[in-house]
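check this one:
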Amino acid sequence: MSGEPDGWVRTAREGAVLTVTLDRADQLNAQTPATWAALRAVGESLDDDVRVVVVRGAGRAFSAGLDRTLFSADPGVPGGLAELGSLPTEAAQERIRGYQAAFRWLRSPGVVSVAAVRGHAIGAGAQLALACDLRVFTEDAQLRLPEAGLGLVPDLTGTSTLVELVGYSRALEICLTGRAVGAAEAVTTGLANVAVPTAELDAAVADLTAALLGPDVGAARETLALVRSAVRNGPEEQDAAERAAQVRRLRTLAGRD
C-alpha cells in the first residue's frame, strides 16, 4: 500500500501492522466523501498478513467530524448533505451504504483495529473511533455525537457499536444530548480501553499492538471471531461456535489440517 495521501488519508505498513492516518491537521481532520472513498479503498486492499490496523488523526485532533462545506444548503455542492437529500430515496441510501463501508471494514475478519484518539472525536470522527475494536484515548480526548442537534442521525455505523459498548440507556442519552464524553468517563463505561497523557499515546498504542500480535495467529483470529459473535449470539449458538473453533484449533495443533 502506498504511503501517499489520498483523500487526505495516509497509510504506512510495518510488518503485520497497518497505520491509517487522517491527514488534514489544519482542518482537524474533518471528513468528506473523498475521505470515505479513500478509507474504503484501504479496506478493500487489505491482505491476509495484516493483523492490526491503527487509525489515528494527524495533529491535535482525531477528527472533528464532517467538513463544514458539506453543510451548505446548495444542492449543487458535490457530496454535500443538500445534494444527498435531493437524490431519490434508493439512490441516497445506496450512497450512504458506500460511506458506511469506509467504517465497517475495520471489523474485517482476522484484523483487530485500534483507534488512537487524541483531542476531539466528533460526529463522523466519533463513529470512526467507534468502528474500531479498541480505543486508546489521551486524557484530553472527547467524543461527541451531535447529529440529533443538527436535525440528523448518526449513520456511519455508530449506533450499533455504541450500544454494544455502553448499553442502550447510556447510548441513547449520549446520542440525544450530543454531550461530550471525556476520557475518564470513556474508560469507566467501556468506550475506551485506556486513557493516557498525550505524550504517551504513541507508546501506549505500540505496547497494545505488540500485545495483540503476541498470540498464535490462528488462535488470535478464532478468538477475535468468537468475541465478536458473542455480542449477538444466544448462549446455545455461542457455545456451538466455541466448540467448533476449539476443534479446529486442536486439529491444527495436531497437524491434521
